[in-house]
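Morning - 3-methyl-2-oxobutanoic acid inputs below, output right after.
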Amino acid sequence: MTDTKHSPGAAAADRVLIFDTTLRDGEQSPGATMTHEEKLEIAALLDEMGVDIIEAGFPIASIGDFEAVAAISRVAKSATICGLARANPTDIDRAWEAVRHAPKGRIHTFIGTSPTHRDITHLDKDAMADRIHETVTHARNLTDDVQWSPMDATRTERDYLCRVVEIAIKAGATTINIPDTVGYTAPKESAELIAMLIDRVPGADEITFATHCHNDLGMATANALAAVEAGARQIECTINGLGERAGNTALEEVVMALKVRGDIMPFTTGIDTRRIMAASRLVSAVSGFPVQYNKAIVGKNAFAHESGIHQDGVLKNAETFEIMRPEDIGLNATNLVLGKHSGRAALRAKLAELGYEMSDNQLGDVFVRFKALADRKKEVYDEDLIALMTESATDHAHDHIRVKHLKVVCGTEAPQSADLTLTIGEEERQIATTGDGPVDAAFNAIKQIYPHEARLQLYQVHAVTEGTDAQATVSVRLEEDGRIATGQSSDTDTVVASVKAYVNALNRLLVRRQKTRPADEAAPTAP
Ligand code: KIV
Ligand code: ZN
């Protein structure tokens, strides 16, 4: 097994910066809205795990985005905090206002340079070149850490790309990011593009090239690594590959690829890979986007060996079928079961093994929930604890709508009914109603207590472990006027989990509504 701390190429290894954009490009994923507190929690974890630059948001987009970026800037420890801005002084000033309190703040300004984007912005090549010069100069007058991106770079004419990159460097950009905005490129081309820029653009050796790939053709990780081999030294990525459409390059994939294959890709990152699972779970919990079972590195099955031959091989020698150790990404090798007689110390040790470090206060809270679960479920497995921690990651204290009480009647005799009490703000409202099955009855009750136009787009139930006492994790996606929000919840009672997931999605929709309230109507659509 590759112990990458001592990988063959490590001595000569170049450092690659990890730029995480989960809170900006990731949050643009339809339905992945995060609250202010959740963004702070994710940023703190990214900072702790060694992410070099955190793109914390798009400050001009809404007051909420601005406040989140500003708050993250104030508490950042070692990561550089970056704010996104379009190519105009108002956006750039707003981004700087949000990141200026960070120990290290960065402005990231961009403009679409491909023919299609020039058409949309009604700028010809010369006018766009002038705009780039003016805006990068403007940003550079505010800070000496300026990143510039020619959006849709991979579909921009090569000569024009060289021209605008040169202008941005001359105007003071210190990082040039090359986005494959629509996930169009392939590894060979991704490498050639970076190599060409380094070769042709004067001043290219004085700045850092970054690669920013989208996964529309499933090549985002390969494209990013190819760009690094050609000379890029910053990878832009998101946890779990979260992002618009098919998502962005996944942080865990590029980091582990560089770690495991240091022999052929001699590059290091500053990431403490043992925090990867915790980051993956947190992002999945707060975005409401479940991680697919066979997702590389962080999927439930990534280290599971089902076939007899594989199991036998792994038991005799883990290297037979494993190229990395589960503990390298923060997964423990054992699955010791806890139960209602387990104490705080056992719970703390088990949670630490799973990558959750917590204060005494936090532990006290989780312990109460653990005991409640253990009372209902004889054996509590790792997966149960992860579901419990995922549930706690979603901070319900600030929710406008909360579930107070639910009782359903189901069985062979229709109609099935639900008696539900919700707390809306400070007020309690109760209703009893019927439906086509207990879940339908409960959802009808929510709609009657809190009338809304949102449409149910997705309702999904997964069993966390095996057995009839297993917890169910439910995902609910709602859509209202083009806004999408996803909620998730787990409980041994599937109907309770369903109602909580629905209410969770509804609360997220309220956050989305606030973000696009009339005062912000001039706010941009996401790039
Ligand atoms: O994909 C893209 O082009 C972007 C830019 C804003 C960098 O996210
Ligand atoms: Zn992007």
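Note: Residues 25, 179, 181, 212, 214 surround zinc ion (ligand 2) (CB under 6 Å).

O.
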